[in-house]
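Hi C.,

You asked whether I'd gotten around to modeling the 486-residue construct. I have! Everything is below, sequence then structure, no commentary in between.
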Amino acid sequence: MSADAPGKVGAQLRGWDAATFRTASGDPRMRSTVVALAVLESTPDWERLRTRLERLTHFVPTLRMRPLYGLFGLSAPRLALDPDFDIDVHVHRYSLPEGSGWDQLLGDVRRMSLTDFDRNRPLWEAVLVEGLPNGEAAFALKLHHSIADGQATVIMALSLFELGQDPNPDDPPTPEVPRGEDVNLLEIARANVEDNLQKFRDSAEGLLRAGGQVALQALGDPGGALDVVRTTVGSLTKAVSVPEAPLSPVWVERGTTYRFGAFEFPFEGLKHAAKSRGFSVNDAFMAAVASGVERYHERHGAPIAEIRVNVPISLRGDAGDRSAQASNAVAIARFEMPVEGLDVDEQMAAAHELVDAWRGAPAMRMADPLAEVSWFVPVPVLAHAAKASDVTTSNVPGPPIPLYLAGAKMVAAFPLVATIGAAVNVTMVTYDGSACIGISTDDRSVPDHAELVEDLRWGFELVTGDVVGSADRYAASHAGGGTPSD
């Protein structure tokens, strides 16, 4: 990761990042937080952990940057180094009351996720929670989704965690980060004008280039050029269409709160289920989610033919420098996925076909320009589009080897993501041979949170052909599906 950082006035949030910040600020139902929850075998050394977190902010300067706002909110916020950055404002520790367990931990993490950031300081916080059964501890890192997606969170963790109980012997030296400076509104306004003009120039040049390429193709292959235009226009139209309502007849309402659930199982089972059928892990993952969702609706006497799914499509390349990847690099595909009457093979095939089609769609490569345009769309319209989705699924590859945090071994890593308008979010992170599933459910849409968690668990059992939960270290303490006892 690089320590490169923008100058005094920082850089303006662009594209998807800017849109995420704006909608999260404008509608509490669009709250956009990511919590990475690491379960630790023992309590880490506090001072060493604090030092590792301070060091991380030097490798990822975004963690030292505060939002700067222009006049009248006509431009996206800028991120600039905070002259008053203090690691102790963002990091703290506490111990659970005696007798507490997994439910209490998830309840605390839920409250942490639902608490708004101080939007005049860097958009993250971290907490060490002690007092779990069997001498375990937990570490929760909360980030605003506008500064990091799931994969970026994993990348950050790779610089925070270590390979053994002792410090890594070959860690690179900690780079220096310039001290932030005070900025006045005039300086922000001037920088925003310059950035906005540059954006317009870039957009115009992009349109001219695209138009020139189509014109050249038309000279040699008029029919092919017309097909390109038709495909692109169709893809864009599909991407920006606003559905009227969710497809689920029971997940209709949306509230401002959600709750978390989690479970884990051996990753090998999911890999085998996918590979033996000629599909990807993501196909198997989505098939398991769809199967669980179908079962939930059948039990409620409301069978559904399709669900509307959001799937982040990674736009990351294989850059050698991980610093360029420590941010958002995704486009969101939204599509209707069949669920009724499909067996596991058919469900995987449906997921594969839909995701593959969207991954190659022209609109995916135009995600940031489309998000820039969304700045001129009222937040209620954007929120309405988000709330028309039933489920968001995300599959994030994590480290395949055990990691340590300030001397304590990490035994599980759960991704707990805000629902961001959907009724349900199901995210998987793989770690050291385990598939760690994090689930969030909108409280109004899913009042029986524990039942849905069990249905999703059943969906993974169906796909893997094994009992999911046999390797679940928390089965005794969250037999109710991880519902917080608030």
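If it helps when you're writing up: The chain is about 40% helix and 20% strand.

Thanks,
B.
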